[in-house]
Amino acid sequence: MNVSVPYYDPVLYKIHRRPLPPIPLAPAAPINKLPPELLTEIFLWFSIVANDISRRGSSPWTLTHICRLWRELSLKIPSLWSYFSYTKSTKYPLHLFHTQLLRSKREPLSFHVDFSCDALIPVEVLLMDTIGLSVFDLLLAESDRWEDVALMVPGDALRVFFNMLICVQDDCHLLRAFNLEERNMKRLYNPRPLDMPDSMFATAPRLRTLKMFPFIDIAPPWSQITVFETSRLSVNEEFMIIRNAPLLRKLKTHSHRVDRHSTLPEASRPFTQTSLVYFVSTFTSNLLTLTLPSLTHFLCGSYVPEDEVDALLDFVRRSNPPLRFFSVMLDLEPLSLSDDFIRRLADALHPVQTLVVLKLMLRFSMSEHTFASVFHALQKLSLCFPMLKKISITAERGICSLEDILLFVQCLWERIKGGALPRLKRTNRSAALA
Known about the structure:
Blueprint: H1 9-17, H2 36-53, H3 59-63, H4 68-75, E1 83-86, H5 94-103, E2 109-114, H6 123-126, H7 131-140, E3 146-153, H8 158-166, E4 177-182, E5 209-213, E6 227-230, H9 235-244, E7 250-253, E8 271-272, E9 278-281, E10 290-291, E11 297-300, E12 304-305, H10 309-319, E13 325-332, H11 339-349, E14 357-364, E15 369-370, H12 372-378, E16 390-400, H13 402-418, E17 426-433
Parallel strand pairs: 1-2, 2-3, 3-4, 4-5, 5-6, 6-7, 7-9, 8-10, 9-11, 11-13, 12-13, 13-14, 14-16, 15-16, 16-17
Helix pairs in contact: 5-7, 10-11
């Protein structure tokens, strides 16, 4: 929040014109002994960051308790009161929410409401009479001021909240970010599939960030979305989002559970998306036709089977992106770590000179497989990463010895001395010690 000093001039002038109050008989609090000019200067500096600090939910109220001068200034700045937080740690009486709404005037509202903190209340009571829904009723009345909305809802009550949101869908002209998260997946109250009308965000021209847990099959204005996060997508839904969102910069799927029997995408032509910089890929099959030249963060959201590794490497080679973070999960047989496989991996990653973090997660079918072959294979990677700061290697169902670790560290040190690698800040390995 950038507020210039002239913004406060009328308030400060009015304060300085007041006659000095009589000296109290009781000693004043230490802060009240400071000159008003100094208190004002401190407040002016603090108010620049006060809006961010108010993300904690209670700092506007804290400001009003510092001293009389700070209280008067706080009440004159509506933006300090425009953030609401209702969680387990920020519950407070309903009348304070109403007061805060009044003090925010007509400022755009940002709020985070966690209705699941009342999860111990029976669902019939939750839907009828709780402070949580009362707070939401107050916010619904101000839907034309919504800017950043985050709702954490119990699964039993999710459909009720949908119906309430649909009632205000035509008012969300200022909406920039919308986050809807179902906190439990049982849905005992309404087991039918959830749906939301395609017109839900039709009147939100400023909407840029959309987070939905679980994913709901709607048609938001993809052409303006820059950030999208969800729990689980099908292979066609993932490709549809990338294809229909030309401004998309971040696509993140949080679920690692993938049904490999339904990962064949519909026939599609090669497609290039130039805006995406952060991508958590769930389906390697989508990488067959994708080119993402702007990618800086690439993460495999599930283990890549051995027969799909070539598609992954071809995608990296074809896109040739300025990667800074590369994380891949490989599901391999022990014999797959051959010299040919290592050479193909090296060829795909060699052009990437901007890499800062490299994470390899390997899973073998044999629990007795030793980690020594992994270290031996990685030592053959003739890569030069001048910006690399962290290497993380994880092997599931693998066994390694302290000697293997020391030999690998020695190999890295030789490359650092030779200039092929910078001085690493962190090197991680994870496997069972023999």
